[in-house]
Amino acid sequence: MMTNAPFTRPAPAALAAVTDALAEKFGNRFSVHEAVRAQHAHTLTWGASQPPDAVIFAQDAQEIADIVKLCAAHRVPLIPYGAGTSLEGHVNAPFGGISIDTSLMNRLVAVHAEDLDCVVEPGVTRKALNEQLRDTGLFFPIDPGADASLGGMASTRASGTNAVRYGTMKDNVLALQVVMASGEIIRTARRARKSSAGYDLTRLFVGAEGTLGIVTELTLKLYGIPEAVSAGICPFPSVKAACDAAILTIQSGLPVARVELLDALQVKASNNYSKLDLPVTPLLLVEFHGSDSSVREQAERFGEIAAEFSGGPFNWATKPEERTRLWQARHDSYWAALTLRPGAKAVATDVCVPISRLAECVAQTQRDIEETGIVAPIVGHVGDGNFHVGILVDMDDSADVARTEKFLERLVRRGLAMEGTCTGEHGVGQTKRKYLTEEHSSGTLDAMRAVKGALDPLGIMNPGKIF
Amino acid sequence: MMTNAPFTRPAPAALAAVTDALAEKFGNRFSVHEAVRAQHAHTLTWGASQPPDAVIFAQDAQEIADIVKLCAAHRVPLIPYGAGTSLEGHVNAPFGGISIDTSLMNRLVAVHAEDLDCVVEPGVTRKALNEQLRDTGLFFPIDPGADASLGGMASTRASGTNAVRYGTMKDNVLALQVVMASGEIIRTARRARKSSAGYDLTRLFVGAEGTLGIVTELTLKLYGIPEAVSAGICPFPSVKAACDAAILTIQSGLPVARVELLDALQVKASNNYSKLDLPVTPLLLVEFHGSDSSVREQAERFGEIAAEFSGGPFNWATKPEERTRLWQARHDSYWAALTLRPGAKAVATDVCVPISRLAECVAQTQRDIEETGIVAPIVGHVGDGNFHVGILVDMDDSADVARTEKFLERLVRRGLAMEGTCTGEHGVGQTKRKYLTEEHSSGTLDAMRAVKGALDPLGIMNPGKIF
Q: Under DSSP, is residue B296 helix (H, G, I), strand (E, B) or coil?
């Protein structure tokens, strides 16, 4: 199979040719200021900050196409930037280059309520989208916690708490507009709900982390806001019992909309941070969507399943305010975790395993956390077999950093040994590249590299990511 | 972008080198008999029959890998063959070559009931799979009508009556094993329910129609057999009323499992063929899955929606035998249609449009059928905006053939003009290649061709299909 062009930092003259032209064309939407560049390398990971050489605040696809053509002529890298909430170094610029900030591309282009879809620019965030949709009775369900941009969510194949019911970004993007490495603007598909007309380019760009092109517009599936929503909390005697209850819930075909695990340590942190008084024991937070009667029925059946694993009592948050508070606490788990070790940095990572291995994987990980002597709460989208560990690390303590690195390696290898994946929803970015070669065979990686080489022969699209 | 190697029929000596070697290696699992070759060009389309030069009945992935390497060395085409039920000439051999019949690869390799997945060889048919799964309480929902092979269903991105609830093959393949054009055997993904680890090769091979590699194993999602299933028939005064009721059903978020349209002509044919006494008027066949009470609730709400569009009375088939008879009649609609014009051939085609345009598209198509003076019943997976027209053509009447060709063009262009796709679930094959260039821009097609060129640089994988 073909090998890709090796990538190196552009020569100063090439870079200057690009930045001079961009400065002239974009005026105050172009910046080489230290602070702006630093902000565009900002990442929630613990890797080194690698700022781009310059930042463009782009306004439309044609502008981005022009920038790509200019950069291609001088072999200068392009790094797409949404909301900067990615976790694996996706927006870093290891070879320098131009960060394409899409935050000004924040228009809701069209809502086709009758077709249950909408068209958005990539800088629209999920919260902004749902606010703008409110009057239509529709919503976009994918919710990774952070108020990420939809372009970024597509590019990292994000999912989150609702995925067990509504799927991931892979399942909810109908079509994309993409600026290719050649500068050509393409559409991957039309607006029909399904198609067998040629290769599935939509799914190829979803999860490609900006390495094959830059997403400039998304057509997304929408859903009717359920008639009834009901959420509740159920304590369990152990993480294993909670996982087993989640597994049986899924296996029983209960259409649960969310089923989230918090381990006791995370509950303690969330109680402190979010001013809650949840029992400090492993918990499942669950939510059901449907009609009044179906939600009630689902809740009853879940309660029965929980009881089989010694879970309960099952407390319902029927009022919207209570529900909001509960999910806000879940979403704030990252910030809550930080309170467990003031001054530490939280390293957020995820793995995903077949659901039958989940309880075992979480339990082994908890033992590992204890034996390693680190502080690391666990939360999980347990309906998908996906869980997150937030390790609190003192970055000034090299022993602590080394210990954490070893722990992360063991965590990923534990997931891989159970037929799982090194990342369920965060993406590979820079940080998990070494695991990609453990997850996939060389033939599989060759196929991915061949696709990369075919669509980005110069290697200018977000180099240093995935591979 | 790169252009692909032009493909031509292999030289006789190259072909002989391949067939001699295969004959020696495979004995009676290799055939050049006229009848066997003709059977492997058999297609339900009306295109010319183009038999392969030889047929291999393969037994495992390694054999296929060896055959691919041999064919690659001599630039001889490979055409994967499942059950031969595809509709757009997918198994024809326009450049000759070797048909890889996978019907002997019919093992259910593993069932992971607790993970709701299974692993199958590509020659397993959907009915055989569900029969083997029966004792597990699980089922595989995708149902294109014909008893297609799962390898073929993946390769054409098939869907069918259940797609409105369970999605298409795109949504239900977790991972694939594929023999690449190099002869290398790869796995596209692991068994976790979701992953963000690299490019989505699974979705790239799903719908690739064997042009990028040969599927040799599939990991599929399974679902619990619903506690309750309820199906019914609802007559409507017009196709438009029936479509509008289907649209509102979807928009209301009713989790209908199937919602199928039969126009009056199809009802007439099905009454004759399947010995039914359905009212000869546009009908919706609907099915609901869930608990006893949720199915009842869904049915009531559907009845209310139907009444809003003057539909009804809504007759329930609560007994499994009645349900089976009803769906068998739906599945036999192709054969039933043939009775409308004895001696004619049925040309089955499909388009898919955004659901808001469906009623309009079907109504215009009905007018076109009438004005053209052809016999062409319509059935549709109307919950997806997808419908089928079965045109009964006298192949010996050149005027009839010409009229039908023009009608097909108008049908596809009508769908495309409504932001739809030239095929919702049949695939492009040979027959719809010309429409692919109307559906997608040249840039989009360039991207597809670049992927094809990267993964199949010699162009030996099912040449003459899609492009």
A: helix
Q: Same domain for A280 and A189?
A: no
Is residue B314 located within the same domain as residue B412? yes
Render B191-206 in DSSP notation, one character per residue. Answer: SSS---SS--HHHHHT
Is B454 within 8 Å of A2 when comparing Cβ atoms?
A: yes
Residue with tokens 């797609």: B163
Domain that holds residue B261: 229-426
Number of domains in chain B: 2
Distance separating alpha carbons of residues B96 and B76, to the nearest angstrom = 8
Q: Are residues B395 and B445 in the same domain?
A: no
For B131-139, the CB contacts below 8 A with 24+ separation are B132/B108, B133/B108, B133/B222, B136/B111, B136/B222, B137/B113, B137/B224, B137/B225, B138/B111, B138/B113, B138/B222, B138/B223, B138/B224, B138/B225, B139/B222, B139/B223, B139/B224, B139/B225
A208 and A243 co-located in one domain: no
Question: Is the reported ipTM for this assembly greater than 0.90?
Answer: yes
What is the average pLDDT value for chain B, to the nearest integer? 94
Minimum distance, in Å, between the CA of residue B271 and any CA atom of chain A: 30
In contact, A78 and A100? CB cutoff 8 Å = yes
Q: How far, CA to CA in Å, does B170 sit from each of A277, B173, B186, B359? A: 44, 6, 19, 26
- A197/A130 same-domain check: yes
Two structure tokens written together for A333: 């788990």
Query: In angstroms, what is the C-alpha Rg of chain B?
Result: 22
B196 and A157 Cβ atoms separated by less than 8 Å: yes
Enumerate the residues of chain A whose CB falls inside 8 A of the CB of residue B212: 199
CA distance A192 to chain B (A): 5
Say how many CB pairs under 8 Å bridge A and B.
Answer: 279
Taking the C-alpha atoms of residue B257 and residue B141, their distance in angstroms, rounded to an integer, is: 10
Nearest CA in chain A to B116: A251
Closest residue, chain B, to A294 (C-alpha)? B294
> Cβ of A207 and B199 within 8 Å?
yes
Q: Locate the chain A residue with the closest alpha carbon to B244.
A: A114
Same domain flag for A207 and A240: no
Q: Which residues of B touch A197 (CB under 8 A)?
A: 421-423, 428, 432, 435-436, 439-440
Looking at CA atoms only, how far is residue B392 from chain A in angstroms?
24
Same domain, B210 and B241: no
From the list B114, B201, B253, the residue facing A444 with the nearest CB is B201
CA dist A209 and A201 (Å) reads: 14
- Going by pLDDT thresholds of 50, 70 and 90, the confidence category of residue B234 is very high
The Cα–Cα gap between B334 and B337 comes to: 5
Mean pLDDT of A96-117: 97
Q: How far apart are CA B403 and CA B375, in angstroms?
A: 11
Chain A positions in Cβ-Cβ contact with residue B173 (cut-off 8 Å): none
Cβ-based contacts of A212 with chain B (< 8 Å) = 199
Interchain contact, B114 vs A201, CB within 8 Å: no
Contact A428 B198 (CB under 8 A): yes
For residues B441 and B287, what is the distance between their CA atoms, to the nearest angstrom?
38
**Within a domain: A30:** no
Question: Do the beta carbons of residue B450 and residue B169 sit within 8 Å?
Answer: no
Q: With an 8 Å Cβ cutoff, are A200 and B207 in contact?
A: yes
Among B156, B197, B353, select the one facing A192 at the smallest CB separation. B353
CA separation, residue A183 to residues A274, A412, A463, B142, B341 (Å): 47, 37, 17, 39, 53
* pLDDT given for residue A2 in this prediction: 42
pTM over 0.95: yes
| Chain B residues touching residue A111 (CB < 8 angstroms) | none
Cβ-nearest to B291 among A112, A297, A439:
A297
**For residue B2, what pLDDT is reported?**
42
Structure tokens at A381: 């989208």
> B386, A194: Cβ pair inside 8 Å?
yes
Q: Binning pLDDT at 50, 70 and 90, where does residue A88 land?
A: very high
